[in-house]
Amino acid sequence: MPASEFHADLQPATERIGLTERLDEERRAIVAQAMDLSVDEMRARPLAATDLSIGRIVKHLAFTEDLWFQHKFLGLDLPAPWRSIDRAAAHDWSFHSADLNSREEIVDLYEVAGRRSREATHACASMETLAAHPSFGKKPVNLRWLLAHMIDETSRHSGHIGLLRDALGRPAIR
User: Fold this and answer.
1) Where are the alpha helices (DSSP H) in 36-170?
2) HSE on the CB side for 12, CA within 13 Å?
3) Confidence band, pLDDT 50/70/90 cuts, at residue 2
4) Which has fewest Cβ within 10 Å: 40, 81, 113, 154?
């Protein structure tokens, strides 16, 4: 990405600003990589070794945002469309059901989940705020851990999208 398009502050005033801006930058990259694709390209699985598609990854990221921020962190029921899916099957459903959605539906689902996550983050008084539910069968994560985890998760999948775009003959976008 050209430096003029990079949105995050290179010298953030606080840890919270740095982490939230970095996560938002990764979220923007996900949306940018989906917006110029046709529905066929969103559904395509061009790599024989995996059944991943760009649409499947973006919808999975929407589920991941809601699972971590809404359910685990805030302790709320998962919002639609996840609430009607058996929790044990929701992870796989978030991938495979994307084949039934348009690019606009998937991107909208992701952007709405991101807005909810930003609202949850904004409502926390400190980076030490603990999640409502424990994770990994241990103890609750704090907001600091969650933001770092979501940066990792989102940037990892952004790389996968870049590889899929290359396989489709589309250059990666950041």
Assistant:
1) 39-43, 54-65, 87-96, 103-122, 143-167
2) 12
3) very low
4) 40
Structure token pair of residue 126: 């400190």
CATH T-level fold of 16-167: Four Helix Bundle (Hemerythrin (Met), subunit A) (1.20.120)
**Do 68 and 78 form a contact (C-beta atoms < 8 A)?**
no
Dihedral sign, CA of 120, 125, 127, 133? negative
First-last CA distance in the chain:
5
Per-residue pLDDT reduced to its tens digit, 55-109: 999 999 999 999 999 999 999 999 999 888 877 777 788 888 999 999 999 999 9
CA dihedral 26, 100, 78, 131 (to 10 degrees): -30
Regarding pTM above 0.85, the answer is: yes
101 DSSP assignment = S
Give the span between the Cα atoms of 42 and 165, in whole angstroms: 9
Task: Say which DSSP state 73 is in.
Answer: I
DSSP count for the chain of H helices, then E strands? 6, 0
Give CA–CA dist 142/25, Å, rounded: 21
